[in-house]
């Protein structure tokens, strides 16, 4: 996080609502997308996003280190999603074609992405969460460990086991290529 963002966090912690809104504006697309992936519809995602903003605003004075604002906010939205889904008693992820415009993408690529997405949806939540944070949100292993409040070794194990589970579900060549490229990248 830049010094400007840290300054905004400090201003927001001291009651500057405009600084808080600026911080949220910087994070809103990432937060909304994470909520949408978990809850699978726009209205629910907006509701979870709003709950996250309220919790963040109320909890901001307790944030000890301003440089971890983004990580802290991501942890809040994951917890809000889990709470929301527990109330609805269903955990389903959205197919990637509903998150982005794939018109310019080849049909084979779309089919492969959907197969991968469906396999990801079937994983245990601990594997699904680390893979989403790592490969769809592009967080580092270290950042994921901070977000989930667990050791980096646990994150690496969950990533490895999640990738192995995906490989078993998708015995096609493209998944092997994708998993190998992912494994080399961390």
From TrEMBL:
Residues 23-89 form the RNA polymerase sigma-70 region domain. Residues 115-166 form the RNA polymerase sigma factor 70 region 4 type domain. Keywords: Sigma factor, Transcription, Transcription regulation. CDD domains: Sigma70_r4. PANTHER family: RNA POLYMERASE ECF-TYPE SIGMA FACTO, RNA POLYMERASE SIGMA FACTOR. NCBIfam families: sigma70-ECF. Belongs to the sigma-70 factor family. ECF subfamily. This is Sigma-70 family RNA polymerase sigma factor. It comes from Lysinibacillus agricola.
């Amino acid at each position: 996080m830049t010094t400007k963002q840290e300054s905004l966090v400090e201003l927001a912690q001291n009651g500057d609502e405009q600084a808080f809104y600026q911080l949220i504006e910087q994070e809103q697309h990432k937060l909304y997308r994470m909520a949408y992936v978990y809850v699978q519809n726009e209205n629910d995602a907006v509701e979870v996003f709003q709950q996250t903003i309220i919790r963040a605003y109320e909890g901001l004075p307790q944030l000890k280190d301003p440089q971890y604002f983004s990580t802290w906010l991501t942890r809040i939205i994951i917890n809000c999603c889990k709470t929301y889904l527990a109330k609805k008693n269903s955990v389903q992820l959205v197919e990637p074609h509903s998150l982005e415009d794939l018109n310019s993408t080849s049909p084979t690529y779309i089919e492969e992405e959907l197969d991968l997405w469906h396999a990801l949806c079937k994983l245990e939540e601990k594997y699904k969460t680390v893979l989403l944070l790592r490969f769809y949100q592009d967080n580092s292993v270290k950042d994921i460990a901070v977000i989930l409040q667990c050791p980096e070794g646990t994150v690496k194990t969950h990533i490895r086991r999640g990738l192995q589970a995906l490989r078993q579900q998708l015995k096609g060549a493209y998944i092997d290529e994708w998993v190998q490229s992912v494994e080399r990248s961390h």
